[in-house]
Each structure stands twice: as structure tokens, then as C-alpha cells.
Amino acid sequence: MTLEEKIGQTSQRGTSSMGKGLSEELITKVRKGEIGSFLNVTDSQTINFLQKTAVEESPNGIPLIFARDVIHGFKTIFPIPLGQAATWNPDLIEKGSRIAAIEATASGIRWTFAPMLDIARDSRWGRIAESPGEDPFLASKFTEAYIKGFQGDLSSPTGMLACAKHFVGYGAAEGGRDYNIAIIHEQLLHNVYLKPFEAAVKSGVGSFMSSFNELNGVPATGNKYLLKTILRNTWGFDGLVVSDWNSVTEMIPHGFAADEKHAAMLSANAGLDMEMTSTAYEDHLKNLIESGVIAESQLDDMVRNILRVKLKMGLFEQPYTRFNHSIFYDEKHLVSAKQTAIESIVLLKNYNNLLPLDFKNQKIALIGPLADAPHEQLGTWVFDGESEHTQTLKMSLSEAYGKNLMFSKGLAFSRDSLTDKFDEALEIARKSDVIIFAGGEEAILSGEAHSRANIDLPGIQEELIHKLAKLGKPIVLIIMAGRPITISNIYNEADAILMAWHPGTMGGPALKDILNGETSPSGRLPVTWPKTSGQEPIYYNHKNTGRPASEESFVAIDDIPVGAWQSSLGNTSHYLDAGYQPMFPFGFGLTYSTFEYSEMTLNKASFSIMDSVLITFKLTNTGKAEATEVVQYYVQDITGSITRPVRELVGFSRVTLKAGESREVTYTLPVENLKFYNIDKEWVVEPGDFNIWVGPNCQEGLKSSFVVD
Ligand code: NOJ
What we know:
The chain is of the alpha/beta class. It is built from 17 helices and 26 strands. The protein folds into 3 domains: 12-313, TIM Barrel; 340-516, Rossmann fold (3-Layer(aba) Sandwich); 595-708, Immunoglobulin-like (Sandwich), CATH 2.60.40.
């Protein structure tokens, strides 16, 4: 390959379809073999044309890879990734990403920029919607599932190259403001932020994306420590690394690169293989190599990484797509999307067992800006899913229970500030037995560049809820949003609260089945839910501090609006006006039954590094309905060479029991899994005392302890 051809492989360009921006200049470049990949080309005619030009007319006949953000479905849209994380069910995630791959590859897309693996501890950050939540263990389990699902058999026509992004620290944006700096000390980086990415390498992910942010002063896209020392040398990754959109040239405003040539030099030397959209590599690598600033062997390594992936994808044997649009929105895909939406829904409150509702004998007033908003319920990062296929809550309920259902949006959209439809909403509410208010955030209020400083319900939704509450009827609040929404001001107004995230194409039927009791809710929070955004960042696996606010000093403030509460918990770590507890803890979620945990035992009291801790306990469904419990196991390493979190998730499993049924449940925890990156920068299990819990969330459950010697 000539120097130009090699450099061409490192270039990923965006273009639109034929006749709409595909320039002669780009076509000529493809013909000369000087482009490696395209993003966001989706029409079959253009894809075929470009691929044919590359394969049949360029000197080496190297195929292109067509990439796209296929984040939570291609046509059939699944719940947003944060919602998928709330299922605590990796099997569903694998199925969903397989379906996304089947639909996208049928359109010629063989590379998705997903999964996003950024640990997110701050709900103000708009991209928390795309994240697996705050926990590295849960995130790693989902990573494995996503990659298996997306890639399948990578060399087959439905294999879609996955991309672990954003490497790394993007979710730690200071203040939750998108693109902001990340300051993460080395132990925290290894023990939390890198974990899902290492799981991605172990799962055989074929590509990585460097993140927009700087990490401890060095932009990720020019960060040798991340891209070479950790990714290649420590983890042995042999796939390709692509930049984020213009993130090579954005190192100039970061104040790290002086100009585009300098940016190209820094990225190439750091080990970044492919540049997305900006053209610093195309414009400057030749000169940098010819003048000896970059060794040609560096470029050879980059090109090898790219070609190795293309080979693994079978693109040389089968460069063309057999377009098959008949599988879009296939019935099986819709069934799977519905099941994922069902399992993602978290029941946060169910006062007096208001839910499930008796739709046959009750008059229901359905109100709210998200009750019938086909586009909004799909959520962020939906390029290809069409809202005409969305089934909303209103559609599903009126189809099933038309005569008992009255509907009035009340507010045209979530940010609406007009009260002109309040009267109509109040009118139907007055005639009803139960009010369902479906509110939340429009799709555009979360996702990239959509951070919020105040994460209350936007617009005047609270005002409408207060007015409805004055009628004295029971209220079910359904929240559809890309993040936890602070609801302290309206918590007492709602009798039941369901978090439905942005549930996707099949959100309506999924909610219907939960509301009518056909199925019991089984979603659990993958993220800590704050009382007020002033508590952010807030996460369960925090450190204890020298002055923790303790249970003894804790005054329950659940029933008191945040602003009205002013009390001191002494010289402990807390807020005068928000205490120290979240609104709902990580792992929390109710169902239509109750579960009792009892008889917890461990197989031994002390263990060596080679052992496994065998935890056994009895789980009983003590309620009146069949339901699924998400059993969670947490450990605390009580002292360490660096301080350790108060609890860390080390396992979970879903157990479904009939009413009254009991089961002995066991879980095997290899002691080796307790290792952490310690003060000496080594992965070790430090001998000492450990606490262990099994329970329904990170704050409750049975406790035991053991020693590692
Ligand atoms: C920027 C986003 O940060 C990234 O996640 C996405 O894949 C690219 N744009 C391409 O659309």
C-alpha cells in the first residue's frame, strides 16, 4: 500500500446520500482507496455505490465499513440503555442488541457506535440516558450481553461490529455538564470507570471510541496512557480505536494541540487508529511521516488494526449487503421490545396497593404530556426508528379499555408553560375514579449536550399535578424520562409512582400490562435517585468519610418536601436541607408482592484467595401475587490500603416465585472477585474483614461477615 492508501484507511467520513451531499471529491477519494469508513450513510443505493467503488475500482480493493449510532434499536426501538439496565436482565439486553444488529445490517450498517459504557454518577448529565448506570459490576454484565448481541458471529452478514465508548471518564464530567473535564484518581479509574471497558475487551469487542473529555488534564483522544499502556499493553486489545466526532481537532480548543498537524501527531502517537469526520490525519500524516516526526511503523500498526477488523468482519469475502427491509418491526422484534420495556419499569411507590388497577370497573382519567407522545417515548439517539410505529400508553389503554378511559393531555409537551388545557384535564379527572398522569421529559431533554442543572419535572407539570391532587382522587404518576427526575415536591401527591424511562416503540403495551396487573413490575434502579439535584453526584458505592451520617442520627424526611426540611445531623457528612439519603437507593424497586429474606448462611467463616464464598438464604414470596425479586449481593471490604466503598455490588439474580412460595437460593462468589487496584497499583485481595449482604437493594437485606486470610 502507498502512504496515501494507508492514511486513507485511517479516515472515517460522514456524508449524506447520493445527490444530497455526496461530493465528487469523496467519490474520487474512495476510488483511490483513500477512505476507510463512512458514518451515517443509510440508503442502500449510496452504500452499494460506495462499496462497489472501493472494492472494484480502488487499487487494493479494500472494502469500506459503514457505521451508525444504533444505540437502543435500529427500527424497533428498545428502552433507552439506562432503562435496559433497570431490567437487571442481561439475556434481554443480548436479545435486544441482536435484533438491533439484524435490522441495521439489513440496511447495510455493519458497525454501531455502541455500547456506551460510561459509568454515570450524576443524573444532571444528559448522557446518563445512554449509560448502564452507576455500578461497574452491573455495567460489566451488560457489556458482555451487548457485545454478544451486537456482534453475534461477526463474520456473518448480520454481525455488527460493536464499539466500546467513550474511553474513558466521559461520564465523570465535572458538574454533570456534558463535555466537561474529568478528574479521576488512578485507583478510582481502575476500580470503577475502566471496569466495563475491560469487560468489553474480554468479550471480544472489535472497536473502541476515544472520548471527548480530557482525563486528568490529557484529552482521551491523545492519551497514550489510556490507548497504549492500558488498552493495548495491559488488556491486549487488537481491534481498532476510532476518535469521537472531531475529537482529534478538538484537542486545539482543549489547549493540548497547537494546530491540526500537532493534533494528528499527538493522536497517532497515542495510538488512535481512525479519525472520525475531521481530517487532520488525511491532511497531515503524510508530512509528519515524511519529515520523520511519526514513524511509518506507527501508521502501519494503525492500518493493521483497521484491516484486521475488516478481515474479521468477513468484508473481503462479502462486502455487499443483501438489503432486506421486510424484517423491520418484525413481530418477534416487537415482542422482545415489549418484554424489555416491561422489565425495565420500576415501581417506586404503591401506597395502599393502588396498583394494579381494575380497569374493568374503574373510570380512568389519563392525563399528561407523555401519555400519547409517540416520538418522545422513544428517547434519545433515535435516527431510524419511526414514531408511526410507536404504541403509546393512550393507544394501548383505549384499545383495551376504551369505554372506561377518558383522555386529556393537559399539557401539549413536557416543557409547556400554558395552562389553557388544565380545565379540560381537571374536568375528566373529576369524573374519574383514578387519575393516571404520564409526565416526564421529552426525548430531547436528555442525551448528548442535554445536561440539566435542575432535574425536576420540566415546565408546569408539577402545577397540574398539584391541581389534580386537590380533587382527592388516587393518582398514578408515570415518569418517562432519560434520567431520574427529582420529585420531592410531588411525592406526596402521587399514590403510586412508576419509572418507565423512555420505553421505546412498545412502551404503551408494556405499561398497560403493568398497570392492569397482568405482570408484576420487576425493574430495579441502576442509579441512585436523588431528592434534589444539589445532592449530585450521589451514588451508593461511596466512601464512608471520617464523619459519616449514621442511621441513628437519620431523621426520615421522605414525607417532607425538600425545601421545608432544615435540620442538622451534627458534625457529620450531610446537607442541612436534604439530609444524606437519596430519595430511592440504588437497586430499589417494588412489585405487587412482598419478599422475605431469611436464614442467611455462609459456607465458612474464613477464606483463602482460592476459595469461593457460598451464600445461602431462603427467599419467600409473602404476598398475594407471583412476582420476580432481583436478589442483590453486596460486599464491604472494611479496611484497605486505600479506603474502600461502603458497599459494592458483587452479584445479582432474578428469582420468580408464586404467591406463598419459598426457595433456597445460593450464590457463589469467588474470593478472587474481591480484588481491587490498591495503593501499590496492584490488583489484589487484601486480607482482612468483610461484610456481606443479600437483599432487595443497596440499603436493606441480611448481613453476615467473613475473613479473608
Ligand atoms: C458524538 C457522540 O459522542 C458519539 O457517542 C457518537 O457515536 C458520535 N457523535 C457519532 O455520531
